[in-house]
TrEMBL record:
<keyword id="KW-0597">Phosphoprotein</keyword>
<dbReference type="InterPro" id="IPR036736">
    <property type="entry name" value="ACP-like_sf"/>
</dbReference>
<comment type="pathway">
    <text>Siderophore biosynthesis.</text>
</comment>
<feature type="domain" description="Carrier">
    <location>
        <begin position="4"/>
        <end position="79"/>
    </location>
</feature>
<dbReference type="Pfam" id="PF00550">
    <property type="entry name" value="PP-binding"/>
</dbReference>
<protein>
    <recommendedName>
        <fullName>Carrier domain-containing protein</fullName>
    </recommendedName>
</protein>
<keyword id="KW-0596">Phosphopantetheine</keyword>
<dbReference type="InterPro" id="IPR009081">
    <property type="entry name" value="PP-bd_ACP"/>
</dbReference>
Amino acid sequence: MPDSHDSLTWESLRGAVAEILNQPSTSLAEDDNLLEAGLDSIRMMSLVEQWRHHGIEVTFVELAEHPTLRSWATLLGVS
């Protein structure tokens, strides 16, 4: 997990989501609907809490409205 917003990368984003879903990161494409991939509200809140702990401001609603890695990368400023 990154120490700050500036160090959040595509791979760390995808890795965090894959880990919480107990899937290999290579199984998640950037436009996959993460809710359909098994991400539920409790797991999504866990991600929000992890990222907030590392200084990344994001809300559950923001993630839930657009549940794809591509959308989250844009929202979180991942390069």
